[in-house]
Amino acid sequence: MDYEQLKEKINTISDMLIKVEQTLPKRLYLLCESENAYKVSKFLFEDLKARFVTTTGIDSDDCYEIIYHFAYDQLSTFINIKTFIRDRNKPQIESIAPFIPGAEWIEREIHDTFGIEFNNHPNMRRLILADDWPDGKCPLKKDYEFKKLR
Amino acid sequence: MSFWKKFGLKKSPWVFHVNTGACNNCDIEIVDCLTPRFDVERFGVKLVGSPRHADALLVTGGVTAQALPRLQEVYRQAAKPCVVFAIGACACDSGIFMPGYHMAGPVDKVIKEIDPNAIIAYVPGCPPKPEAMISGIVTALKAL
Amino acid sequence: MKISLKKPVLAIGPLHPLQEEMEFFQLTVDGEIVTDIDVRIGYNHRGIEKISETLQFDQVPYLISRICGICSASHPLAFVQAVEELAGITPPDRARYVRTIINELERIHSHVLWVGLAGHFIGYDTVFMWAWKYREPILDILEKITGNRNNYGNVKVGGCREDIDDSIIGEMLKELDKIEKKMNMLTKAVLDDPILQARLKGVGILTKQDAIRYAVTGPTARGSGVDIDVRRDDPYAAYGELDWKVITQPEGDVFAKAVVRLLELFESIKIVRQALKKLPGGPIAVEVKQIPAGEATGHTEAPRGETFHYVRSDGGNRPVRHKVRAPSYVNVPSFKASCIGTNISDVTITLAAVDPCYSCTERLAVIGGSKVTYDGKELLRLSRGKTEQLKKQLGFKEGFKFE
């Protein structure tokens, strides 16, 4: 498959996307709302056979961003799904772990460090923070107070 | 410390290795000490599987919040008298990870919380070479 | 954490350094068969992503080379590639070759280390001692180039910190020939051994479908027949200009992973040799003025699989967000697919097959109900006992034993 065919395939789901950005020849960003992220990742993983890499959570000023990174190795391209969770008080998104078991850990980690709820996650327990870490204290949020340097 | 206790501690020290949040670098260098080029087993230094058999604890890595109770438990289990070796820059003073939110502090602080009279020796380096570790252990045992 | 008291739970850990994380495994067992596995990590969580946000772009490589002591060349390289992508910098040719050489030497020493540990877990301490002995000359070469046996700290944004002195290239090539001879012997000794074949074949199988679903990378994936390798799929450094091939094995068992790693050793030696011979002249770094706002991704093939870094900048001198995905982060959960249904005595080697770290065996404890019935030594004895049994079945005479 070449680049044009890949773009055509992505165009078939264009109703779920806000827009498609190409920052560099080999880096595609598909922007969508958080409700559609599940369907778009399912399309990439099952129809396009892209390889799941990881998920990144980001605390932007007005919303949380979740980026699903997929690698499309035939074209040495990264296809990144960028979604926005607008509700800062009760952030939640559909989990992709039911069909990609490899995403189970990273979603648990994002839950620990950002406090984002993943609906329908098979095993949502604490993963990386200590057992006695207080609930609701999310270290990767921007408002988390950082220890003073020496 | 009585003469016999000291004698028992210094002759062929058995060591137990605790990783409290290290990057594996110090750990592979510790195992390196046991393999043919350095082979410290010639001198009776042996890596044992339980802290109850150990004369010395080799602690690598700055202590993370999750590893803190485990390290203290291991120290409680170790037969006394016992020397704690803080191996590597992270174990000595938390190193580059000092500002991390999940770090509980350097090894000496954590051990002294439960035993203020603990004997702690430091081997700095990132990672210390096997030669440095052997030299550190010999120097510390001589100084007892 | 709830432990079911009805079924015996076998706990491995928690002081159990696996890759950059210490881990706590709980195996639910039925007789000797593993029926479920649960992993708890976080003992080694140091908050590197947050610390990284407080450091400047040229300080970050020193921090992330300490993510893992064994992958301390590939992590900074992935980050630096992401930043270079962001700033639109192409590193000079000589820097690309130096990066290739250091990364491949790292792969050689890591794979040899794994072979030794795998031997140790199944009671072949001879392999352990041999492998670690032959690893030393590689560390010597690395020390000559970068000044340290591990934690090289040699890449920086825009190029490399230290150059390879042309006068030591001849010496290095000679040393590589010696290493290759020894590796030949080691590979033959390991792969042609009937006991090892009987012990490792068909153990801890990870099927191709599971490998894709769990998104595993590196030798773990290639041992299951998934043909991925970042060095070929998205060529970075100088890999696109050198002649080498990707090794895959379809079986998915522990033996296949050992074969992949051992054969990769020779490919790596080939790459280093070519790169040393082709090493172009010129500067090793370009000046970097400013990192513009934006986001970028970088990935490299570490010894254990794909290392992935995502960097976002707001135009300042520090990253706003820096995400790290180490290869073991996806390889370790695949235990759920490969361990269930296996025998307890096969678990140690199956866990070791994805190349986590050594020293796990010292800290194993089996809990039956709520009281400890076996300790780590017992498990190691079980694993070694099976090897002994196989020896007898295959008609091997009892020789002298290493203890």
Explain what this protein looks like in three dimensions.
The complex is a heterotrimer of chains A (150), B (144) and C (403). In chain A, the strands form two sheets. Chain A has a five-stranded mixed β-sheet with strand order 1-2-5-4-3. Chain A is 21% helix and 32% strand. Chain A has helices spanning 3-11, 37-47, 104-114, and strands at residues 17-24, 27-33, 51-59, 64-72, 77-85, 92-94, 117-119. Chain A is α/β, with parallel strands linked by helices and 150 residues long. The model of chain A has no long low-confidence stretch (mean pLDDT 88). With 144 residues, chain B is α/β, with parallel strands linked by helices. In chain B, strand 1 (14-19), helix 2 and strand 2 (46-47) form a beta-alpha-beta unit. Helices cover 38% and strands 19% of the residues of chain B. In chain B, the strands form two sheets. In chain B, strands 2-1-3-5-7 form a five-stranded parallel β-sheet, sandwiched between helices. Chain B has a two-stranded antiparallel ribbon with strand order 4-6. Chain B has a single domain, classed as Rossmann fold. The relative contact order of chain B is 0.20. Chain B is globular, with a radius of gyration of 14 Å. In chain C, strands 1, 2, 3, 4, 10 and 11 form a six-stranded antiparallel β-sheet that branches. A three-stranded antiparallel β-sheet of chain C has the order 7-8-9. In chain C, a hairpin with a 2-residue loop joins strand 2 (17-18) and strand 3. The relative contact order of chain C is 0.18. Classes of the chains: A alpha/beta (150), B alpha/beta (144), C alpha+beta (403). Chains in contact: A-B, A-C, B-C. At the B-C interface, strand 1 and helix 2 of B face helix 1 and helix 5 of C.
